[in-house]
Queue: 4 jobs
Job 1
Amino acid sequence: MKFVTKNKFIRKKAVEKQINKANSNTALEKQQSMSAIIKILIRVFAKAFSRYSLVANTTFLDIQEFSWIADLESNWVKIRQELDLILNNIDAIPNFQEISKEQYSITQDNLWKTYFFYAYGVKAEKNCERCPETTCLIEKIPGIKTAFFSILLPHKHIPEHRGPYKGVLRYHLGLIIPQPENSCKIRVGNDILHWKEGKSLVFDDTYPHEVWNKSNNIRVVLLIDFVRPMYFPFSLINRFLIQLISWSPFVQDAKKRQNEWDEYLETSK
């Protein structure tokens, strides 16, 4: 009787394992289908977003186009002060690829660290609580979708890459910029600029771009992705696609990894 009961138990476990595997495969297929749909929609609307943009389609854009930048620049010291506190425990800050596994294609070392506030509209609550002044300032930005401290350790080079989505623009606020000035630079397309502390850059990251920190010190900017201003109805289409992206496996996986990192930090105190 015990032998029969044991066999039933083994068969039951085997069936449960097959069901779990089938459910896992179904979930993976749904995720892959969703990602494929989003990529198709992004390709379909890319040219339209360029044509109906309310701002230039150049590599770098004139910061005077964006009135909210003045508020960030006038308060950059407050942001820097909160950054300095975070950097006191720099080893606890995750590498970019530990939060977003898609970044493994451009960085595999420990020299690019990221402290997230937002990712495609998803808020990193714990990180925001640690930096209330910075959070308050970035939440005033119209159409903010992603925000984080981008921290490059000495001699880090980010190879050429390009963003996938024309519907957002990228902003950098210089917070810690090593000297001499030309030791750190960014190339977008064929144009090269250098950061300055308390000063801003805006660029279209769908152009090929790369970054260098050739100095012996860290370089930190506040990186923000915000919604590209567009004519109606493409402004609505753009926001709809951005919402789809926020539901995608790519963003949800990053959110899960950020939560896991928060738990690790809490338990390691």
Note: Strands lie at 112-119, 122-123, 144-152, 157-161, 168-176, 184-188, 191-193, 200-203, 209-213, 219-227.
Job 2
Amino acid sequence: MMYHESVYSCRAAPVIRRDGTAGTAQSGQGMNMDKNERSRVILDLLQRDHKVDVNELAERFHTSQMTVRRDLNHLAEQYNIVRTHGGAELGDLSIVRMISFDEERIEHREQKHAIARKAAEFVRSGQRIYLDSGSTTRILLDYLDPSIKAVLVCNHLGVAQKALTFPDLSVIMLGGDVIRVSNCSSGPVAEEQIQKYSLDAAFISAAAIGTDGGLFDGFSPEARFKHQLFKVAKTVYLMADSTKINTYDLNHFGHLTQIGTLITDSGIDRDGENLMKRYGVRIVKV
């Protein structure tokens, strides 16, 4: 299957335009970017430089300092960045979309539970499946037939713990570096280990699905790991509520051409449906 790589410039921050084409935000160029596009540039700059300045961002985006401050405040509510008087800082860390791992702050709960309930119907006895650490995929086990006999591979401590309550589920928890904020194992060990398995199905999430069909995650180690799943899973189910469609996040990990089925809510609009049709993705609405 075709795989689309994101290309990042070392001299200018990347921009994904509304039509899905890639470009760069250069000083002196007039860029009419919306909030989503500005946010992605800001996150990339933070990942690269570990800090950003309000004045410099306002000049880069050709917008007001107040608009930039609102953008930074919004990002600080979702990611592990710290607002400062003149901008924001990351520190010597990778950017993590914290809201994805904070159970009390997870949004669209009703849709996520409906999606998880439907996804559980696609799990069959005798299968070898992978269940990722996304806020929607994590709750699939709440709706799984308790008598099912299968092999479940995962990299999230909470998923493994819950899976062990199923008497006939064989559970494989991947090794590697366990990230405290996410309770996930990742890194070279986990990436190498997953390549040794042959999976019937993988159930994955995405922080964003771009207008170009790109799949994005808010956590770079998880994004690198997800890239390996496409090599070993016969079928990939993408579990994502409709608010994730036609948006972008920082870490690119795949493309809709690598997805068999999208399980989403009834809020998906015509543009979202056309996007799935363009790349041959079956839609299951709940």
Note: The radius of gyration is 19 Å.
Job 3
Amino acid sequence: MARVGAQGRGAEQLTHESPRFTTLAWALPVVSIGLLLLAPVLLDHDAWMRWVHDETGVMELATVALLLPAWVGAGWLAWRGRSLPTIARGWFVLLALGAFYFMGEEASWGQHVFGFQPPEAVAERNLQGEFNLHNADAWYHDLFNEIPRTVAGTACVAGAGVLPWVVRRKRLEPDAQRRSWFWMIPTVALVLPGLLAWASNLPEKALEDTAFAAEGTWAFYAFVAAADETKEYLIALAMALYVASAALRYHAWAGCPEARPGHPDTRVKGTAPDAPTRPVPVR
């Protein structure tokens, strides 16, 4: 089998993730969920509330910490990704704005870190007395909390469960990198993080108000009490991995000119100069 000159490590990252990144993308959500299931066993009630459920606990801070690189990475792709299709750059602008909003709302725009109190008019309309929009009462709650959650959940299902498989072979086509979908649709490596983020609150819906998950039981702490925090953390993790995937593949493409269609090194040995290029096979 003839080898393609661009079949190096950088070129391979254009169509699929490196094994190391795929392992990381699959391990992080699985390990995180495993720790959350062990937390009720290892911690007493007060420690669990402080570490998992508190607004300044590990879960909330980890969610914000994941959204920060997602925001920066998406902004970098939109600003520095001059070779990206226009629609893809616009998509990363929207993603950067979404990550910034998500991050700010999770941190209540710094309220719990800096210890300031929201204006009285804001606190009165907020279900938890916080300086944010997603906990506001009345229709504000649906607009700034339920709708974004639904959009994120739908994106996880479509982006992880369906679309990566639809375009998996199309990623091998010449000039695929010049199509917006190439950068917007996640790769197969992100299937598990996306599906786990979407399905993370299904146990709560199934077990809530059952004797098995009664207050004080292991199942209550593992599946019900922190369901919202778990879903937010896993969505933030999926976003961070998604942006990292796109940024790494773009960096490989921008820094590997021989991987671009039309470059002499992409031709199979023995073919004429104007022969069609050969895509790098997915392993």
Note: The two ends are 15 Å apart (CA to CA).
Job 4
Amino acid sequence: MTCPPATTCTGPRSPTPCGSVDSPNAANQPGHKGLGYRLPRVAVLMGPSAGSQYVFSRLAAEVDLVAVVKQQRPRREVLRAVIRRGKKLRRGYWLDRLLLGAYTKLKLKRQALACSEYRDVRAASTFEPGCDVLRVESINDPSVIDLLQQTKPELVVVLGTSILKEPVLAAAPCFVNLHAGITPMYRGAHGQFWAVHNRDFDNVGVTLHFVDKGIDTGAIVKQGRFAFDPAIDNLLTLLAKSSVAGAKLILDWIRDNQGHFRGSPTLTPPGPSQLHYSPGLSDYRRFEQVARDLLTSTSSKAA
């Protein structure tokens, strides 16, 4: 079993080599299916979000984790991207985004504590894998390609990174992305938020799809939906519910398709394709109105 060279990775002190008998991913650990069962060799490419960390923590106990890459984009680059996108979308978009960020810190984080899924996701924030982690600013860094070529995973799971370019996609046989939204109708950012915003309550959920060069345009292999609770749910709880539902979705798919990931059956797209971007405070105010309308409707029916 190979592992990324220590000179190219940073991680927890005294890390356990990937796939060793002392690793939480080894076949003698809880969660494996018994003697003779070979855990699939999986690499994870992930972003910095709490939801990505939660799904990663669930995956680590069920697969032979041969490589882990964490992307952390510089704050200045993220801000420049927001400003560029705002010029294309609408006037004042970048300020609207910043206002929602402040509103999230001042109010939504406190409200989200009422949601059990949000608490579960928060609890996974301290999880550390049993092997080294390669930390990069760009997910398309040459070191990522080298790592995948060295470790030879059967499957690469993508969790909240930037768009992968062709050289990275050519470095392993199969890539799947866990997307917080029902594709193709809710591609891009915060798909479950936009489904509620559009009162499309039947399409609040998550999608597992193969990765291609587009933005969430790959063939769909599995989807899961969950209910919107207008009394509790907000921007953060929807993301947390997506992570919890998504972790189960991808683990079920891995168990059902081990050995032939690339040949997994795909689903017919359930609707037209639409790309969405991160919301601003004005978008979130309309989301809150949808929740109030649902609560009023429920109260009227109960009366």
Note: The longest strand covers residues 64-71.
